[in-house]
Please model this.
Amino acid sequence: MDYEDIRYDVSDSIATVTIAREHRLNAMTARTVEEMLHAFRAAWADRSVACVIFTGAGERAFCAGGDQKEFTQEGRYGTSRNGLWELEDLHLAIRNIPKPVIAAVNGYAIGGGHVLHVLCDVTIAADHATFGQAGPRVGSFDAGWGAAYLTHVVGQKRAREIWFFCRQYTAETAERWGLVNKVVPMAQLRDEARAWGREAAAMGPSALRFLKHAFNADTAHIGGLARFAEAGLDQYWDSQESQEGRNAFVEKRAANFDPYR
Model:
């Protein structure tokens, strides 16, 4: 595939997937998702790849979720080559690839971008990185991996706080809550992620594969919930409530959800 929205490279047994939409805070369109899914599958199939680093271009954002401007203009998050919105398939690829996935969070990890880093095996964050959810504020939600799996990472109280109030949290707070494994200065982020990648590459690949499957087994039931939630979200996007959230975001005003209570 000729990538337009991402960059993909392999060196020293480490594959790096970089969202390259810096002008939109690395927000995702359907094409972005399609390309990321293709890249993760390429890393999965490549026997020379021991682990994957997942990051965003620039220093402002890892990923700001779905591209709301694109959705408002097109009625969906753009068009992929195959015509599908494959975000749930991307989630499963990150989760199931039998190699460690390291999120290198270089700025905002918000909304769908927050879900992406949570699904990675470990997260290393730049000290200016910001974490949080935005769904209920902009007419969206993730009731599958984004909510149910997050609970296993930070606990019920924290997960509900993150989703119900859509606040934003510093890298320091995210590390204290267990959302992040390590915080480093931005200038050291890529080198730190690659250092972790080299450590993983020195391990027995079969042992890592079995361990990842074992860790996943505890939360495998969330897969069915995620598909159910995805179907519900698809219908919710067509509602007036969801449209109000997206329009308010694009118009840079507070959403008025009162008519929908």
